[in-house]
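sry for the spam today, last one i promise. struct tokens for design, 75 residues
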């Protein structure tokens, strides 16, 4: 048997998300932006920049180069 909160909470969340959020969120958005001015997760820019050398080594880590031919049929 399933407990009552396991049924009621998802239904209430669905009703809020489907019907109430389009009206409530625009009203509370300015307050949320004041409390949370920045993004929660930011990627560091250093991780995005990877420099490749001529011998297939990226920042000291050897990369796997694939010279295999695809086995897909070409009908």
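last one done:
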């Amino acid at each position: 048997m399933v407990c009552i909160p396991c049924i009621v909470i998802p239904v209430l969340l669905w009703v809020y998300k489907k019907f109430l959020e389009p009206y409530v969120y625009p009203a509370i958005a300015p307050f949320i932006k004041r409390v949370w001015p920045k993004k929660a997760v930011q990627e560091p820019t250093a991780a995005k920049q990877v420099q490749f050398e001529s011998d297939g080594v990226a920042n000291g880590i050897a990369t796997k180069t694939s010279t295999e031919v695809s086995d897909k049929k070409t009908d």
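The helical segments are 4-35, 45-48. ok im logging off now
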